[in-house]
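fold-stage: in
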Amino acid sequence: MPMNPLRAQLAAVAAIVVAGDVLTKQVALASLPAAGMPVEVLGEVVRFTLAFNKGAAFGMHVGGWSRVIFSLIAFGMVGALWVIAGRLQAPATRMVIAMGLVCGGALGNLLDRLRWDRGVVDFIDIGMDAWRFWTFNLADSAITVGAILLLLPASESPPARVASPAAPPAPPAGDSSGQAA
């Protein structure tokens, strides 16, 4: 049975994100000095600083269970978005790209959690002087952009809809139900 085309698009976007995330993390691990030692890229504003995050975005932690809990959340999120993608009706390009970005980012960080206990590899360090944003990676960026795209009002016409398996069929065009218009 062929794959749903919208799921295929989601999978393609997610695969590109995972590949880019894995590649950039490998480069960071191979070329950056010890964790915490910044390398200036665009002066002090953009630096590459190797870090390992055992928690989630913005340094969220749930103690010793962080690795397990955030791994389960990633699996659940990817599964939920996969189900939703299977129910979307075309055209849904923006939705599918957004969901693919979120899935790819979640899977990229999940790979780090599953392969070692050091935590997720982060290395992009942005800020000025003492003010620095949390160190992040390509997967984090994909999740953020995808989430923003999902929250933006639909710009496609007609908007993407999720098919409901229990929805009654629409009456045929021109059907008179006896109600006054």
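fold-stage: in (second)
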Amino acid sequence: MDVKEKELVARVLAGDLSAFEPLVLPYRRTLFGLAYKMTGNREDALEVSQETLLRVFRYLGRCDLERGFQNWVIQILINAARDLGGKKRRESGRWNADSFLENAVSEEPRPEEVHDRSEIRGRIMSALSVLSEREREVFILRDLEEKSVRETAEITRSSAISVRVHLSRARGKIRNRLAVLDPSLPENAR
């Protein structure tokens, strides 16, 4: 955690609520992007992001300033995404890959890119849908967010070995799923 973050945390904990916004503002896009990758749709990503910020504020006193603010916030986001996913599974009976794909949105592409983007997005979301919750978290953090194995382990509260195992399984499942979706892919591209 840098000095500025430590100062802002200290100010918020001392009762200066105006210090909270500059503390979390640099992470706004990162949080939403990660929440979107975890949930697959804009509305849930917004809900998870908002819940994350509420929890950060509520539990700021528990933050270990030596371990890093960003990883702590990401850990909270993952827990919020898990909570939302569990709530949705309880309401619907299970996680629905079709719903995940239907709700996936993208930026506004040019008309000629709509079909290609939709097809690629569908393949990626379909590939992610075959992963367990833990495999999806590890894959997103490690391969999409480019976190180190150590950082991923800290965020998911697991060991580095567990991260490597889940990542290996996730990559294998994604490779197999992509092979099913597009058998024309060369063997080394899978």
